[in-house]
Amino acid sequence: MIAKHTHVITPCYSYYFYMNNIEYNVVNFRNLCYDTLKFFKKMLKKLLNLGLFADISEQELAAVFSAVNYRLKNIKKKAYILRQDEEYKSLHIILKGNCYGEMLDFSGKAIKIEDLPAPVPLAPAVLFSRQNKMPVSIIADTDCEILIITRDEFIRACIENKKILYNFLELISDKFVFISEKLNFLQFKSIKEKILNYLLSLPQDKNGNRILPCSLEQLSRLFGIERPSLSRALGQMEAANIIKRKNRDIRIVMEQN
What we know:
2 domains, Arc Repressor Mutant, subunit A, disordered N terminus, five-stranded antiparallel β-sheet, alpha+beta, 12 strands, Jelly Rolls, single chain
């Protein structure tokens, strides 16, 4: 289901009410305005948690979204938000919920790329590419609420506030670094190599343990393997005294020697 904010009340009215804290005396109009203002403030607070809008005040962001058009879309758990090779002409921002990126290799096997908890913009580097097709599918891990803004409207937002442009360029640069690291990770062929490389990337606590930030199910999707295969490999590494494991706490034995 797609819900356009302008179906309730135009963004400029939301901004006007927001800035002037107007009290509504007309009964038939009051509730409508109140609900819209409440939604607008709630949306702004979520967006302010994004790196894309870093160093921007709530008032500045309210002014930006009074000048651009956008829409909202609700996606159910396990549904596709975007599909691999789909044309990407509008920036999608997850406001609520969790999703993940997944791609198919040449054999048709699904490989999980990354978890994407809200709030997060999706595929920012693809938005202005000449080949603006999604390199991965985005799938909802939970029910999700998404803000969608077209390229032209996003350009208008960048013109309204140049901080958004600077943040967007930084976001693309960081994404490039992440992809480079991901490609480096995928070069490891064996499951045990992938596990060890992943564990070495995690921070240690004062006892030398590393804590898995996700479940084995999520980790198996990240590695592009079945969960039983991951559990078996972990068991073999533990039996070979390469690691010691208790629930999500893992210690690499070779580091202690």
